[in-house]
Amino acid sequence: MVLRRPLQHPLLTFVLSLAVASTLGALLYFVTSSLPYFALGPVADPRFGRANACLMSAVGDGRLSFAVAPDGGAVAASSARASALCRVSDGALLASSPTGARGVAIDGAGRVWCDRGEAGLTLLGADGGMGATAALAASAEGAVALGTDGHLLALHGLDEVAAVQDERWPVPARLSVSGTGALVAVVAEGTVGVCEATTLRPLFRGSPCRVEEAAWHPTREELWLRCAGERGG
Hints:
Helix content is about 15%, strand content about 40%. It is mainly beta. The longest helix has 20 residues, at about 20-40.
């Protein structure tokens, strides 16, 4: 079953889709199976092999997160003891930090946002930082973070908060940004919401089902949801 809800927007149409579980299961399988493959075969992979070897050398064992730049030209990873950014084409180390992070994300400008949990949010290779966040996702112009108080923040830099959403979300929650970097989805306590990544203007919030996971189509503003009780094929 597919549910489509076109939302009025001056530049784009957001399509919310509930798809058959087998299709989403295949998508989630590809995403979740890719990371172990990178970890187990750093040299064998024809595209990411040298970059992955660079990351393994820089952050060591126990990788906690992995991110690919929007243009596919660089990858980042973190462990409990280090964070790093490596170029895909030749495996060169572009930036690193002896400080670990539980999550990394690469924005449209190529900056690496590092979520260090209670230690706060930082940018790889930059001085300073900001307070702790509950969730993080990179956008075209920076990042979207969920504050520990449940408010969404649109960030253009560590000292530049572009927008704060008035309504609150339950914590914990999961954030994901569309392939264009223009929209962000929030999933919390079975509810899904979508808003503009830069202004945080709400476009949709509701519970078409008890939502467990959400994944964006790689090229379209289309969000795929997995509901409670569904199983991938």
